[in-house]
Specification:
By secondary structure, this protein is mostly helical. Helix content is 67%, strand content 0%. The chain has 8 helices and no strands. The chain has helices at residues 3-31, 37-46, 53-71, 77-96, 103-126, 133-145, 149-166, 173-186. The chain is globular and about 50 Å long.
């Protein structure tokens, strides 16, 4: 496969993954049983800013990218598309999907959002075109100050959850479930999205890298 063709297909994989990521975030919001850490912050900011959920997602991603400068992180094309694409995708799905009326429906929607988030994360990361802004922030803290990745992740996520909750974001059981579930859900899917004919070459042996859920990306992500 030629390099331009492979790059085009990787870009398409990236865009599909980012759209699904935005959709999964929107479904999580509609479930109303608690959302992941960065979404708590976005919801809180939505209470004090006259912007849509998606617009706040885009602006906050761009602000976080500014923090990459002192942390000496370099964005890829996937990083920039991550910042620009997830917010509009979330706004579209929020417009299309209503909030379920009963608890059972909300729980099922939340479970579906986690499954979709895992697929979306593995899909966009598997394209190998750059991490999301929030993931890069945590990696940057690790590399710049020598913090363990888990410590950088914990400090950042606790901070955004507390700030988002104080601003009125939705903290609930789903917030805790998302924090612990997304890593194990994504891990087995990662190899599947790195085995396409257009996937970037992977080293034979690599050290394990902790998955950051903000991911989404976000998460990171």
């Amino acid at each position: 496969m030629s390099r331009p063709t492979a790059l085009s297909l990787r870009s398409a994989q990236l865009l599909v993954g980012l759209f699904l990521y935005g959709a999964s975030v929107a479904l999580q919001v509609r479930a109303v049983v608690g959302v992941s850490s960065w979404t708590v912050l976005t919801q809180g900011l939505e209470n004090v800013l006259p912007w849509s959920f998606g617009a706040i997602t885009v602006v906050s991603s761009l602000v976080i990218l500014l923090l990459w400068i002192p942390l000496r992180q370099r964005p890829g094309i996937g990083t920039l598309l991550n910042a620009l694409a997830i917010g509009p995708a979330a706004d579209l799905v929020l417009w299309l999907v209503p909030e379920p009326s009963g608890l059972t429906g909300r729980v099922l929607l939340f479970v579906a959002s986690l499954a979709l988030l895992a697929v979306a994360t593995a899909c966009y990361i598997g394209a190998g075109l750059g991490t999301g802004a929030r993931d890069g922030l945590m990696v940057g803290l690790h590399e710049r100050f020598g913090w363990p990745v888990w410590a950088a992740r914990t400090v950042v996520e606790i901070t955004v959850v507390v700030v988002g909750w104080l601003l009125g974001g939705d903290v609930g059981v789903g917030t805790v479930v998302a924090a612990f579930a997304i890593g194990p859900l994504v891990q087995p899917l990662m190899p599947l999205f790195r085995r396409f004919p257009w996937s970037p070459a992977q080293p034979e042996r690599t050290a394990p890298v902790p998955l950051i859920a903000d991911r989404s990306p976000d998460v990171t992500i």
